[in-house]
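Work Package 3 committed the consortium to producing structural models of liganded targets before the mid-term review. Because experimental data for this complex are still outstanding, the team generated a predictive model from sequence and the ligand definition alone, so that downstream docking and mutagenesis planning could proceed in parallel. The input record is reproduced below exactly as it was submitted to the modelling pipeline, together with the SMILES string for fe (ii) ion.
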Amino acid sequence: MKTVLAETTAQSPVDVYDIDGLKVAEDLDRYGATLIPKLLQADECRALATLYEDDRRFRSRVVMARHGFGSGEYKYFSYPLPASIQQLRTAFYPALAEIANRWNQTMGIDVRYPSTHAEYLRRCHVAGQLRPTPLLLRYGAGDYNCLHQDLYGEHVFPLQMAILLSQPGKDFTGGEFVLTEQRPRMQSRAEVVPLQQGDAVIFAVHHRPVEGARGVYRVMMRHGVSRIRTGQRHTLGIIFHDAQ
Ligand SMILES: O=C(O)CCC(=O)C(=O)O
Ligand SMILES: [Fe+2]
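The resulting structure, written out as tokens with the ligand in place, is given here.
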């Protein structure tokens, strides 16, 4: 399936991402995560990171240490979302919904996701999950994001995306994106996703199916960020369900 991102910003040409060509489904099935290189250009990343200062864009700010979530802060966008974020959310959803539906079938879960994001949001909104979840995160030296799952109500779309907006090695050091998977009655496995500026990672929000010798089982997934050693790191998070 081809995902077309029309004009992610005024400067950017139309980009076409061939989701099949990038082995998105294959990686997600094997590892629970996949990396999409250079989804955004450096100038788009800088423009998005700069939005962090513009409080008119956001519905709320979370200081992570106050909640035991880690150290650093983030802000949830208000509706209407910035056009580039709205486009990313809409454009990536259909291909991810196909994977999510296949996973649910494999795991014996009877929830199915509609083919358009607009339709899925209607389902969230009818259930009272009305608040937008796309967010910008900002970390400084010493900050980190504890392993977590982004669940905001009954309706959870099982895949999400994060885009690194800062340049590792230059804007910051440390601060690796980390995923863990907890298999039933087994020790946990960790995976570090080596993101460059503008790269996206798509990953499982809460669980995913794994084929074992005795059939399919579910592994629990969590994600977080290791300690930022120096500098400042910004990320854009795109979650497909809305929040209560
Ligand atoms: O900063 C990161 O890389 C992780 C962000 C995150 O937890 C999210 O987007 O849900
Ligand atoms: Fe998260």
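Reviewers should note the following from the model. The chain is about 25% helix and 35% strand. These observations will guide the Year 2 experiments.
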